[in-house]
Model the fold of this input.
Amino acid sequence: MNYDIFSLQKILSEAFQKSAEKMGSGDTTVSIEKPKDKSHGDFSAPLAMVLAKKLKKPPLNIAQEILQNLNIDPSILLKAEIAAPGFINLRLNPALFGFILQNALSQDVNYGKSTQGKGEKILLEFVSANPTGPLNVVNARAAAIGDSIANLLSASGTEVLREYYVNDAGNQARLFGESLEAAISRIRGVPKSAPEGGYQGAYMEDLAKTYLTQKDDLPDSHFNVTSKLLGEWGMDQVVQWHKEVLEKYGILFDKWFSERRELHDSGLVAQTLEDLKRRGLTYDKDGATWIKTSEHGAHKDEVLVKSNGLPAYIVADIAYHLHKMDRGYDKVVNIMGPDHHGHILSMKAAHLALGFPPEKFEVLVAQQVNLLEGGEKVKMSKREGKFVTMDELLEKVGKDAARFFFVMRSANSHLDFDIEVARKQTDENPVFYIQYAHARICSLLRKCAEKGLTPFNRAEDFAPLNEPESLLLLKEIMEYPQWVVDSGRAYEPHRMVVYLQNLAADFHLFYSKHRILDAPVEVARARLALVLGVKNVIRNALGLLGVSAPEQM
RNA sequence: GUGCCCAUAGCUCAAUUGGAUAGAGCUUCUGACUUCGGAUCAGAAGGUUGCAGGUUCAAGUCCUGCUGGGCACACCA
Done:
């Protein structure tokens, strides 16, 4: 009896397909959904309505015929009912839940992992902030979303590479080097201001000081050096900061991809440029070289080589994406900030022009974050250097709240992040609601251990779990692996938050209605097994989101 | 002006990707343990899904046109 949600759905789906084929349905995919309303059963099939047109019969009649031909073992399917306008609602044999709980308990930390996404390889690029300053709150949001997606996909058996693209070349890099040089000069007593459009904040002063205190240990080439080398040194420092902040946040990248080293120094940028020219995708105008992106869906052409002879940023970007395409992944996914979404069409156009299938390249936009403090908008100005960094935010609200809040909403919508609410340890703060459920169960388990009560672990002992509140929890435990797969595939980690909130709420309801410690022993031990299952799922799911599951709060 | 994103309860957001009576949390009000963590639970209130059309068995979801908000439209990256 080694069923899980996936094998059950498959059994049902195949049986329906067979039944429908007898009616001449031809080739139809049969989807088995979970109904929105619990009272409709465990699963439902809209098949009859889908077939109505093809068979030219009313859906209700089709549903009846399908049921007559349907052959599913009663040990799996307890009941099938037709509901207007043509849904077929299915109720599983509750005995199955016992087996599923037994499996969930024995799989423990591995429960929720599946092989549904096996065989697929995804390259996920996210954060990729310029190494010219601190990470900001949108970077923090992208980081939380990206890492959670990667966790969800890995748990579904998909192979995921987390990559961070370091933009350490080009004009910004030059400005950064010159700004750093100016800052160092100032500390040495030589008045010098940062270049137009350069970088100023306090962190530049810190960098300059660090440089001066370390210079004795640095190779001669870095003493009295050009702004270019200075910039390279400085950017490596900033990248190091980024790594540290992200690590505090629980995020480890598999690959830090340096634009300067791996694209420019390696000659790949020059090679890409040649390639584009050879394919006839470029033309010259006004002393510059352009790429014909507008022929492939972008609203304008882009400059590849500026009239000063230097390659524009987009060459490196195209080179980078080509390189990604060549690395053997089925899908290349990129999470971008809201300020770059104008760039998406150009990149898609470049992919098309070079003949890559458009669906292989996917871009998600992590929308802007409005920071609030007690309902008041926190004013931020980049020019005045007045913006909250990711580091400061983490300091203020902690890792758990930060990661939870950032994945709580769909990436595509703007996010209101109230720092005050995130710090509160009250019912206003949703992360505590879920963590509390976990801690409450842990406390129960401790109490039971004192009394010598241990949870059952075999399906045949779970019969007492037959109240509506228990059955609901059993069902949610069963559905968990499916939520992992679905939210990963859709790149929507916020669905896991929705799931967790429901699970926690249903646990609290169960807890308030049913006693555990003072129930008869067989009931108590069965209920203990149930809440242990809930606890494991909460812990595993929070883990995928990078949020801890404390045993005491 | 052009393109992309957003618009759902007083507020912040969901809605299984086209499914059944649009759901949660917060806020407000009313109730619930001499007992396993009250950081909890139950109940009430709250809606013409921005507006107008269209597509079909079925539209918050898809297509068209408006309205309002955000972002982007450099030989910056």
The CA atoms of residues 148 and 545 of chain A lie 5 Å apart.
